[in-house]
Amino acid sequence: MPDIATETEVAERQEPCPKCGSLNFNRRCEECVELRQEALLMGLLA
User: pLDDT for 14-28, tens place per residue?
Assistant: First the structure.
């Protein structure tokens, strides 16, 4: 698992972010952060 301080992290999605185009989690991109938060929330509720 990557260090939390890294700027990117391997994502589970197969398509690039519609806002920044990254296939990885980009903590500077609002869309990536929102998608990550939703995924974490769904994981906690599942």
Answer: 789 999 999 888 999
